Amino acid sequence: MRARSPLSSQAYNRALPHPLIDTHGDTGPMLSVCLGAKVQLLIKDLLRLARGQGPHLDHFEAEWLLADVLTRSRAWLYAHADDAIEDFARQRFLELWERRCRGEPYAYLVGVREFYGRRLRVTPDVLVPRADTECLLEAALARLAPECAACVFDAGTGSGALAINVALERPFAHVIASDRSAAALRVARQNAHDLNAAVSFVQANWLLAIADSSVDLLISNPPYLSSDDLRLHGDSLAFEPLGALVAGASGLEDIEQLCVEGRRVLRVGGYLLLEHGCSQGAQTRACLAAAGLVDVLTLKDLEARDRVSLARQPGDLEMSPP
Question: Which of 102, 154, 229, 297 has its CA 20 to 30 A from that of 86?
Fold first, then answer.
């Protein structure tokens, strides 16, 4: 697993000193007082103010957000903690920080998210790529030899995180990605362009546009929450596209469809890999077996939770050993 930057992990942040935040002092005036007002603030005072408004958030997020607004590094903030901040930068930071305090994902505020060591554009039209999905990516790469000219299909690509990284890590593969959302495909295409990744995109609902027995490796991070899942009302998921999160009353409807359709489109020896919720391993394995796929197993993520289930199309040919 590659090391991730602080944009995708808080672990690195907690290892750093934090001279910009006085965790014992007064939190200062409320953000609403400063929004739209001509208030002269030092960088360290602005960040102390942000901490008082969002005590439930990791205060390092405020540092990263201010650094992004100023197009500077956190190290620069430390060196210039006693500098006054310009009005336009103060206003922009406070507006973004209020949105973060209301639960909007940090990635939507800054418009980027790191995934597998690469920065991807993200908008509210796509899910924020998560570190858990790197488990799916690495399982896919393990089943593709470096010079394998396989056909890889990413169903429900969203931001393009999976398809783009497969294309860059396995440049001989022919990578195709689909999404039913035209808005999501615009984001994915832009990411592929930015990273110079050779990916073909198609607007389609799952595998309907794919010919029988044409795919060597099928990967997907489909919706897998049930419609009554309480997490949908939490701070983060409430801002993300519902259609990319919910799969009917059971949370398994899209997984079931992908298993059935996967059996149709896979070539002999080809693999289907699916991300799912940590409590859905047994159910997903049952879906894969019921579709007639073989060598069914579930892989765990870094926290030892069921995260990816996979199976193979019956037959003698295999692209690459697992």
Answer: 102
